[in-house]
Amino acid sequence: MDLSYQAWQRVLADEFFGPQHAGHPTLLYIDGDVEQELMRRGGIEVPLAESVGLAIRAAGPDPYAEIENHRWRVRRQDRDGVPAFLPLLACSVLAATRMVHDQHHRASAYHARFSELLTGDTGLLRSSNYEPVSRMWQVLASWQHSQGGARGLCTIPSPRDLPPNRGRIGFALSQALLSGRDRSQLPDIFTALRNYNGDIWPLPGDALLGALEIRHWEQRFSSGFRRAAEEEEFRPLIARLLGNYAATWDGSAELVPTGLPRAELLVQLDAGRLSWVARSSSADAARMVLPDDVVLNRLGDTAYYSVGGLTAPGASGLKEGVRIRGQDLILSRPPVSVLVLARNDVLGVWASADGFIPGEQHVVLAAPEARSDVQRLLDRAASAGRRQEGSQLAWMPEGWSLHRPVLFDDALTLRKALHEVQGTVGSLHPSPQFKLRLEGGLRLAPGLDPQLFLTGAEPSVVMPDATEGDLLLDGSERPEFREPSALGLPVPLAGLGLMPGQHTISAELSEVSFTTAESAPIPPAAPQVCGFAVAADGVAAAYPAVLAGAAPAVVGADITAQDGSALHRTVLCRRGSDQRLFAASDGRLWNISCPEPPAWWAERLPGVADPLFFEVNLFDVDGWLLERRAGRWRAQPVSPGLPQPGSSARARIWASAVLTAQEASADPLWTAYVRAAKELER
Predict the structure, then answer these.
(1) 431/452 Cα distance (integer angstroms)
(2) Reduced 3-state DSSP string for 144-171
């Protein structure tokens, strides 16, 4: 692939999908001015369209084959990187910005503009050649959703949301609706509307679009935005975009300061109280100190951070939002009138979610001004959790109402109800699905084959939005698929009696395969290990040698210590314990919650008691696992080192827990922990 194409890929990835967009909507908007600025900033001499045109074979049956092949080659080296067809998609947006009426074309003549841009001829690339580009947009959207907001929140619409007559080109048109100048005005407009509407925020997209037109503020926007707003079929798309930006706006004067990473502030419900937790995939430090004595500490080897020094979530904090700007990071949370919590697999507790997840349980908190919207939505779509609970609970924000557990069994009914109710729940739509994929199931050996599942514990299949036709298993229809498919829910494969072996699920042009087996293959153990021995001072030897025993060493291309210090450890916790804590040597303390047995346990082993133990993975931490059973504490060592808890407020909480369980063990290392805790308590 030409070097200029690769340069454009890097510049576009950094500009539109960099860490500065974490937790905030991002549009792949590019016009002539943006192109010139990116060329200057990236030191690129070849214009965008010329660079992409070199990789297109307009006369062939598949004009974009070279770009697709390049994308797959890059993906083999970096599976999580931005798909390597951004320059082509940027050209499709650039063509959309040039759709104006002139002496040769109507304003709606998209394909002529696209062909002229890339080939110099308006008729070489026709609408029949555009299908691969449409699929690339859906691949990009699916990738962005898989990043969990770390590369920006996706604004690419689902196929279901596109106007029928713009089904293929609607992806590119959606990114051209709001120019950079348009978006720069949104914070001022949001501030004015929020002050006017009082506590009701965020406003739904329909209300925002209507407010713009009532006040004639749409005249401030670009001509492309105004033309799209006049088309009835495009108004829902514009409203959805405005609603997305309003729902994530944190009250600042600009949407995303370029080059400054953000940490998203989430609410978690754990041990009967609400607290803050931060999420940032762009921050590298294990500990960060922000103004006002706010401290972030990484939770193990995850993208989550504990938050110290910040007042616990309350009614005013939730409705006003939070924004703390540090030297290298912004910690922010948009104001909300409705707080939705769902089970977080990483944290193991209830944590705030961006929207409702069909088929999963939620805890819903509503401010007084949002109570009627929430109740109407639940009455129309929820299968459980419609009843409003009182606010006598100590952890509830004052004046707010509570619904739990809220469950939406029918995704289609949920989407319809959200569209009808709008109001303060208008931004809580389920995440769109762009590709056929597997979720759940019991994987036997993820390190060997991520698509190998235990027979009888197969995954569920998530279908793309707006999929037409039946879901096929190994080329055949199954009556068990019809009901969940009609409800827009994941289709379970467990319980179908599948034989061990490879199976294929297909829908329309999409296909995904997986394998089932009764047991996982056991990889052979290497008789000898070769690596670089590490001396007592931590310096590795200059030459490799055959290693003996468990001496510290560096082995493998990932520079992982052979003694396991950089690997995760698995410990067993007993069900039925009154309390479970993990006290780390560095002064951190975790409360370990007991997970529910997996659904397949009761299905495959009816009448068998729940497993006595459950596993807890600890990433790059050492310390003691503390369990209280029958009024007595027990301590289990997890490669503990000497305690170094520090002297912060967090360390005092650690010390209190250690002293509470000081009789748990007679091990000298545990005695050192107790001694360190007593020193902190003096």
Answers:
(1) 26
(2) HHHCCCCCCEECCCCHHHCCHHHCCCHH
